[in-house]
């Protein structure tokens, strides 16, 4: 029921959000709001993508969609209108605004919060307000230029005044928007595009070295969002990394026919069965220098850790072996997921790491990584989440692995306890013995649903 409720609330939150901002394109009313706040269409799409992600990840519920959107709009507008400058509002001006006659008092139409006459947004609920006092009228009557449109000023119950932001609301304590820098987003996208081309070139060279043709070039370009495969091959040839020659047998067979048809005999066919491609010495060196690309393509492309920019940065900035690069990259992504409270993605990195170790025939690391996922899953407090402590599919897989490997009890316990000790268990709910007993219960065929029900009760007691 909890999982169903969470899905239902996500759908409701998305419906509310899309009604305001538009389903695919920006709605006309949302565009008008952006213009009023001196925000661009790009800002609107950035906000839309950000909040859509918060809804899908379960961080933003349907009850808070409107408040969250108002907060983000106001914050971004305030930063832009003030050019990121922090203005210090003199107390005498704030008192001037607060001490107006009773009929000049302003309250929020949504929550009845007492506001100041220049406020454009409510400091309590984030709703948009219509200022009663024009900012220019204020500045003409009081010689001060610090107060700016969009500032949020709170009047406390004791009539004291302070500048605040809607961010102080506990719901939005953490600023999910962060200091979104459109220029940095642009730079990242440019880096990604350039790396997609580089990685495609390396993969084409690798295939040519092994097969002598470019038969899969379209598949590679599609995989890495490279539009022009023909241009990619030309670049490799023009840069002296790739050469080709016509298959002599086929060429001699059709030479006379080509001559009769008055076709230039030095024209190269696009048929990969006729053309034979090979790497130059420079191409071989280029491929060797960029072998890390093959590692990314084999293990990380289209995985939970598909981050080509980060992978390239870690490789460039760290002098380490490729095996060490794998561990470093996974740990960085794992930390990123943990900090963003992305538990599903965080746990998935252990599946990915275990797969890599299994393909490398590193049994000890493989089995310990599986145990680490089991231990972490068991010790996460799921009382407020839709996930389950013990995933039935993963438990069945783990049990089948143990049955296949036929580890002795002493070896099983040794691997498991080492996995537990390698983790930071300071916040764990269960000690290593308890975790190990749950593993044995899974192995002995105990119903996973019953164990999950038992674990939920333990979490509620913590």
Q: What is the rounded distance between the termini?
A: 22 Å
Tell me, what's the shape?
A: flat
Helix content: 55-70%
**Integer-rounded radius of gyration:** 31 Å
Order of strands across the biggest sheet? 1-2
Main β-sheet description: 2 strands, antiparallel
Tally of strands: 6
Strand content: under 5%
Low-confidence stretches: 1-7, 81-93, 139-151, 157-163, 165-180, 257-274
Structural class: mainly alpha
Q: Work out the helix count.
A: 20
Report the order of strands and helices: HHHHHEEHEEHHHEHEHHHHHHHHHH
Domain module count:
4
The whole-number mean of residue pLDDT values reads 76
Molecular structure report:
It is a single chain. With 462 residues, this protein is mainly α. A hairpin with a 6-residue loop joins strand 1 (106-107) and strand 2. Helix 7 (182-211) crosses helix 11. The strands form three sheets. Strands 1-2 form a two-stranded antiparallel ribbon. Mean pLDDT is 76; it is low at 1-7, 81-93, 139-151, 157-163, 165-180 and 257-274. The protein folds into four domains: 2-81, no CATH class; 91-172, no CATH class; 182-290, Arc Repressor Mutant, subunit A (Orthogonal Bundle); 304-461, no CATH class. The radius of gyration is 31 Å and the shape is flat. Helices cover 58% and strands 5% of the residues.
């Amino acid at each position: 029921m909890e999982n169903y409720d969470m899905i239902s609330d996500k759908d409701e939150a998305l419906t509310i959000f899309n009604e305001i901002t538009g389903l695919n394109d920006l709605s006309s009313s949302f565009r008008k709001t952006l213009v009023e706040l001196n925000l661009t269409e790009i800002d609107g799409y950035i906000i839309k993508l950000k909040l859509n992600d918060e809804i899908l990840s379960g961080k933003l519920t349907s009850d808070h969609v409107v408040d969250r959107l108002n907060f983000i709009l106001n914050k971004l507008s305030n930063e832009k209108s003030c050019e990121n400058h922090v203005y210090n509002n003199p107390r005498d001006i704030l008192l001037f605004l607060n001490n107006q006659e009773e009929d000049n008092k302003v309250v929020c139409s949504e929550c009845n919060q007492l506001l100041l006459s220049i406020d454009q947004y409510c400091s309590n609920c984030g709703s948009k307000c219509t200022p009663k006092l024009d900012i220019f009228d204020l500045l003409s009557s009081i010689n001060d230029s610090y107060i700016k449109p969009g500032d949020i000023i709170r009047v406390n119950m004791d009539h004291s005044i302070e500048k605040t932001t809607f961010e102080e609301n506990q719901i939005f304590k953490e600023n999910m928007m962060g200091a979104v820098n459109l220029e940095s987003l642009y730079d990242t996208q440019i880096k990604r595009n350039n790396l997609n081309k580089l990685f495609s070139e390396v993969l084409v060279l690798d295939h040519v070295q092994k097969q002598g043709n470019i038969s899969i070039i379209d598949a590679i370009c599609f995989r890495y969002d490279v539009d022009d495969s023909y241009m990619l091959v030309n670049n490799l040839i023009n840069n002296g990394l790739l050469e080709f020659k016509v298959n002599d047998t086929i060429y001699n067979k059709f030479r006379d026919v080509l001559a009769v048809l008055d076709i230039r005999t030095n024209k190269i066919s696009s048929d990969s069965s006729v053309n034979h491609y090979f790497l130059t010495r420079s191409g071989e060196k280029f491929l060797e220098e960029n072998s890390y690309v093959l590692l990314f393509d084999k293990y990380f492309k289209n995985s939970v850790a598909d981050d080509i920019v980060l992978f390239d940065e870690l490789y460039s900035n760290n002098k380490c072996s490729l095996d060490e690069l794998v561990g470093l990259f996974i740990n960085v992504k794992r930390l990123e997921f943990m900090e963003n409270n992305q538990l599903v993605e965080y746990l998935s990195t252990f599946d990915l790491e275990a797969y890599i170790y299994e393909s490398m025939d590193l049994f000890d690391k493989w089995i310990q990584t599986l145990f680490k996922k089991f231990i972490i899953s068991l010790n996460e407090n799921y009382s407020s989440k839709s996930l389950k402590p013990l995933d039935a599919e993963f438990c069945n897989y783990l049990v089948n692995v143990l049955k296949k490997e036929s580890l002795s009890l002493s070896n099983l316990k040794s691997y498991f306890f080492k996995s537990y000790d390698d983790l930071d268990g300071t916040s764990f709910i269960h000690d290593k013995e308890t975790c190990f007993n749950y593993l044995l219960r899974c192995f002995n065929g105990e119903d996973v649903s019953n164990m999950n029900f038992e674990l939920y009760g333990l979490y509620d007691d913590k």
